[in-house]
Amino acid sequence: MTQSQPGDLFVVKNVGNIVPPAAVSGSTNSTAAAIEFAVHVLGVGDIVVCGHTQCGAMTALLNGLTDSSAMPHTAAWLEVAAPVREIVRRD
User: Fold this and answer.
1) Predicted TM-score (pTM) above 0.90
2) What would the DSSP string read from start to end of the chain?
3) pLDDT band at 78 (very low <50, low <70, confident <90, very high)
């Protein structure tokens, strides 16, 4: 897909490929830290967010987790994308 070589890509993976707003802090901010590092230390100029069809995280974002009490970290992480859920529901 990218025709890249080993070492060409700085990859950050997380549940749902969610990129939190810069104002999000605490345990949900590791993605922002990775982006800061990539841009300021490694000189990354292009950021690409890739997703896939039938994403379980996006299904959970839209429909809720089956047992959010058993997955409090996942529930909190998905709530970072709550504004997106509201846009999808509205439009």
Assistant:
1) no
2) -----TTS------GGG----TT--GGGGHHHHHHHHHHHTS----------TT-HHHHHHHH--TTTTT-HHHHHHHHTTHHHHHHHHH-
3) very high
